């Protein structure tokens, strides 16, 4: 990582002027501060508690020049659009806005656009919210993102606006060089507003790439955000996805993170429950095989009384896949009447797969209900036996059990078209189809996968 | 009510002073403060140790010099000046004693106050007590019965003289001096401790027990306990601690090593009630102990049971390495913190052998301004197939200023093992309190009842003699004015 650090610093020294040409004063100051911090401490390493099992920090070679030129306007690449699923689609390619219009205002006042464009056109709104979500401890990836971000998506939902139509963001990586991409995204929901977003990360190429994405979500009072994240990347891609959220009173955030495929994925989720009555539901599912690695790091801060949080992460690991789960719930002094629940279950299919689970509770208030549970095991042999006894093929029985395990997460998807799509993808993934798709993981929308069991036999 | 009353109760409990605080006036043989190779040579010379042990100490010391005190624990530890500690203190009037009469009457009185009269125990309970008063063993009883079975149970320094081969074979084999900062320190300066060896196929007829006591002001105590159960042997070993009241913090960095060979079983129980500091968090013992056992052979078993009520800072993780196939390890713990006490404790279960099983039951109770944390690791290496672990860590909070934390690490490396962990944190259930109240049980008693019931799972695992004391200590720490 040392060479990478040096290359990044050189790149920053050479390009910073161009990158920060249109910055507001606040953003420019943040860039400078973050760059200074990065120069001092660099990337995290395995000796750090939160990175000790992470494969993200292994040395890789990337091309940092990417992102300078926003070129492609090739919409046909985005075949990921879901059928019968009416959404407002945003497309980004290689971390750069890929639409003709880089900033648009919908009828009801919602602003959608590229982060860069939004900063220039709405500096007031931008400065009011940008950087308000805080990580408890910064790290090299955050710093370098803050210093060098060049684009991303910006969504602003004004007061009292309820948007029923989901916004779908498709982020595609297709590049011959090995890009290192910094995207910076902001989702702002002012009070009493409501929004659903579907966020897809895809790759089309085989090249190694690294995506360092940082998303801030700011939820005003009584705002409701549903966020679905689907990660489907090639085996040589590293995705570092940092999500920070700040929730004011009575806001609700439901987040669903599904990692279908990807060389190395790390989801850093950091939520501050800052207003009473805030509710947070986070669901995660990871289906990993080969030598893939997934790492979910969650930090939930219950800063005020009467908030609830629920984390539920499930995973199936095949071949030599490895997974890390670290859920950390912190209940601040006086955050009474807190309800917090964490759960992480894993199924390991082979001898070589490995899971590290760390569900932490740190509690400084007494009138709370907090619990966590983890389990790591195999498919239920008794259930297998039951099914095989009734004439269901071993493969089908296995599939059915795994699907049932995974469906517990996909059941939390509230949009039926999306849920069907996700279910379909889970089935394909378990069949091993998705990972073998060559050029695009998402050519699957055309034919219905036939996963039919003769239920009469059961 | 009640809420007022409850607060009062909690306050009363919280403000309770340490009942066992007193200083016995026994002449003590000190060596100068500080730590260097000369001091280590001096300790070794005073204890008439063989050359290899001195070498062991020096190697450990040289390694220690390269280490820094770790900071990862969730503990607020005031800086410790390792040069300001007296590393060796032994009661002066030390000579061979045949009967209790020869023991310093003041020392006997000390034990009487603690309710561990050697005399009474010798006569009634059938427990052999190896009483350690400030690092040097004073009296060992019931040696005869043990000798008959070929069991070796003696102070560590005696064992070094009488059974050097055994000691040399096992010393540092579970906790090497390179293990951690405090293990290195202990290996360099350990003063005394207990050594216990159960020969092949022998079932130890009595429960072995050692009472440690820190007595002289400003002396760190660095015991070393080594328990070896050879093939097919069984032993139940108890260790209990109470320390007199002191205002200056005292460091305690012990090492306990347990070796359980094929088919052997070691049951280790401890009640720790060192001085926790006064109600403003002043004084108290720092308890930084390395305890580890290894199930070396097939079907070996180790069981840790601990009741932690004392010490200003407790930082220890009694652990097991399950090396043998089909080996079993258990960890039962009740940790109570009050006032400004801090505890970061838990266990490690490292599954290396196939079909090995482990159970972890940990109950934390925090009150006052205390911080009580469970930190545990369950690790299954890829070759350890069909392993099973169940962990349960519950925390109970009394009062709004305290903290309860859980940091479990679960690492599974193969597809045939099943690891489960669950934990809950809550305050005393209002439903349960209401239920008790409704049936005419006053809140005071109800809290006592609930806390006691909460810890019962673990208390039940203690040997009879100990369970009584443990319950007494629990009630002193928490229920004193409650139940």
How would you explain this protein's 3D organization?
The complex is a heterodimer of chains A (458) and B (483). Chain A has 458 residues and is α/β, with parallel strands linked by helices. Chain A folds into two domains: 2-275, no CATH class; 382-458, no CATH class. Chain A is built from nine helices and 20 strands. In chain A, a hairpin with a 5-residue loop joins β3 and β4 (111-114). In chain A, α3 crosses α4 and α6 (381-389) crosses α7. The longest helix of chain A has 18 residues, at 2-19. The radius of gyration of chain A is 22 Å and the shape is globular. Chain B is of the alpha/beta class. Chain B has one domain. Helix content of chain B is 27%, strand content 34%. Chain B contains twelve helices and 24 strands. In chain B, the strands form three sheets. Chain B has a ten-stranded mixed β-sheet, with helices on one face. Chain B has a six-stranded parallel beta barrel with strand order 13-15-18-21-19-16. Chain B has a two-stranded antiparallel sheet with strand order 1-2. In chain B, β3 (128-133) and β4 form a beta hairpin. In chain B, α3 runs antiparallel to α9, α7 (156-162) crosses α8 (164-170) and α11 runs antiparallel to α12 (464-479). The longest helix of chain B has 17 residues, at 443-459. The interface between A and B is large, with 36 and 36 residues.
């Amino acid at each position: 990582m040392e060479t990478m650090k040096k290359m990044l610093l050189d790149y920053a020294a050479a390009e910073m002027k161009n990158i920060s040409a249109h910055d507001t004063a606040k953003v420019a100051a943040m860039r400078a501060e973050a760059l200074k911090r990065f120069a001092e401490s660099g990337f995290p390493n395995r000796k750090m508690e939160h990175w000790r099992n992470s494969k993200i920090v292994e040395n890789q070679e990337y091309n940092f020049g990417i992102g300078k030129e926003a070129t492609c306007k090739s919409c046909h690449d985005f075949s990921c659009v879901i059928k019968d699923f009416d959404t407002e689609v945003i497309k980004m390619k290689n971390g750069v806005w890929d639409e003709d219009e880089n900033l648009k205002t919908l009828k009801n006042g919602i602003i959608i656009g590229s982060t860069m464009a939004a900063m220039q056109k709405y500096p007031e709104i931008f400065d009011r919210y940008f950087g308000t979500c805080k990580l408890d401890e910064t790290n090299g990836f955050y710093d370098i993102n803050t210093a060098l971000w060049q684009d991303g998506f910006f969504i602003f939902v004004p007061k009292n606006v309820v948007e029923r139509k989901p916004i779908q963001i498709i982020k595609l990586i297709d590049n011959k060089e090995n890009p290192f991409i910094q995207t910076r995204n902001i989702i702002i929901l002012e009070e009493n507003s409501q929004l659903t977003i579907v966020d897809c990360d895809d790759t089309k190429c085989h090249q190694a790439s690294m995506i360092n994405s940082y998303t801030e979500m700011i939820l005003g009072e009584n705002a409701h955000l549903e966020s679905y994240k689907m990660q489907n990347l090639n085996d040589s891609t590293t995705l570092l996805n940092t999500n920070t959220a700040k929730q004011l009173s009575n806001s609700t955030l439901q987040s669903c993170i599904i990692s279908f495929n990807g060389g190395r994925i790390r989801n850093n989720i950091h939520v501050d429950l800052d207003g009473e009555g805030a509710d947070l539901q986070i669901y995660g599912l990871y289906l990993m095989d080969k030598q893939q690695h997934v790492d979910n790091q969650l930090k939930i801060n219950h800063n005020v009384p009467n908030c609830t949080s629920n984390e539920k992460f499930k995973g199936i690991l095949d071949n030599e896949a490895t997974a890390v789960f670290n859920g950390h719930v912190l209940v601040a002094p006086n955050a009474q009447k807190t309800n917090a629940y964490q759960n992480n279950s894993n199924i390991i299919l082979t001898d070589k797969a490995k899971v590290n689970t760390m569900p932490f509770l740190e509690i400084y208030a007494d009138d709370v209900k907090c619990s966590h549970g983890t389990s790591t095991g195999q498919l239920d042999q008794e259930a297998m036996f039951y099914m095989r006894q009734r004439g269901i093929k071993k493969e089908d029985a296995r599939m059915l059990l795994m699907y049932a395990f995974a469906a517990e997460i996909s059941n939390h998807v509230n949009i039926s078209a999306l849920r069907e799509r996700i279910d379909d993808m889970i089935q394909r993934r378990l069949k091993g189809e998705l990972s073998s798709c060559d050029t695009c993981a998402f050519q699957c929308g055309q034919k219905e996968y036939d996963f039919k069991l003769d239920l009469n036999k059961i | 009510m009640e809420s007022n009353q409850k607060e009062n109760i909690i306050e009363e409990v919280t403000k309770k002073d340490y009942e066992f605080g007193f200083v016995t006036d026994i002449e003590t043989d000190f060596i100068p403060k500080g730590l260097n190779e000369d001091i280590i040579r001096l300790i070794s010379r005073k204890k008439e140790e063989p050359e290899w042990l001195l070498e062991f100490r020096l190697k450990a010391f040289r390694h220690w010099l390269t280490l820094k005190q770790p900071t990862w624990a969730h503990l607020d530890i005031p800086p410790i000046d390792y040069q300001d500690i007296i590393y060796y203190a032994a009661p002066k009037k030390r000579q061979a004693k045949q009967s209790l009469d020869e023991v310093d009457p003041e020392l006997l009185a000390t034990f009487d106050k603690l309710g561990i009269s050697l005399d009474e125990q010798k006569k009634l309970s059938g427990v052999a007590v190896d009483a350690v008063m400030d690092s040097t063993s004073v009296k060992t009883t019931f040696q005869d019965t043990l000798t008959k079975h070929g069991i070796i149970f003696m102070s560590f320094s005696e064992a070094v003289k009488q059974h050097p081969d055994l000691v040399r074979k096992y010393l540092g084999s579970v906790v090497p001096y390179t293990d951690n900062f405090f293990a290195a320190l202990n290996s360099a300066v350990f003063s005394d401790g207990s050594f216990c060896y159960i020969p092949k196929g022998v079932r130890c007829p009595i429960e072995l027990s050692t009472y440690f006591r820190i007595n002289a002001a400003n002396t760190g105590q660095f015991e070393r306990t080594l328990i070896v159960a050879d093939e097919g042997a069984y032993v139940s070993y108890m260790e209990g601690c109470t320390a007199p009241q002191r205002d200056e913090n005292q460091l305690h960095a012990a090492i306990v090593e347990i070796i359980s060979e094929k088919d052997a079983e070691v049951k280790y129980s401890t009640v720790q009630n060192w001085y926790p500091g006064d109600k403003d968090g002043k004084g108290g013992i720092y308890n930084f102990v390395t305890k580890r056992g290894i199930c070396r052979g097939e079907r070996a078993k180790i069981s840790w049971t601990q009741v932690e009520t004392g010490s200003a800072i407790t930082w220890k993780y009694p652990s097991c390495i399950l090396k043998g196939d089909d080996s079993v390890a258990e960890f039962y713990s009740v940790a109570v913190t009050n006032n400004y006490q801090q505890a970061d404790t838990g266990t490690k279960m490292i599954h290396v052998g196939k079909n090995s099983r482990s159970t972890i039951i940990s109950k934390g109770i925090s009150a006052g301004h205390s911080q009580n944390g469970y930190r545990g690791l369950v690790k299954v290496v890829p070759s350890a197939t069909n392993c099973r672990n169940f962990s349960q860590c519950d925390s109970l909070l009394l009062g709004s200023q305290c903290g309860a934390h859980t940091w479990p690490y679960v690492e599974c490396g193969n597809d045939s093992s099943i690891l489960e962990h669950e934990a809950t944190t809550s305050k005393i259930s209002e439903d349960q309190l209401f239920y008790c109240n409704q049936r005419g049980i006053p809140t005071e008693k109800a809290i006592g009842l609930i806390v006691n019931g909460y810890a019962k799972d673990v208390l039940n695992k203690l040997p009879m003699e100990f369970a009584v004391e443990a319950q007494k200590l629990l009630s002193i720490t928490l229920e004193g004015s409650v139940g």
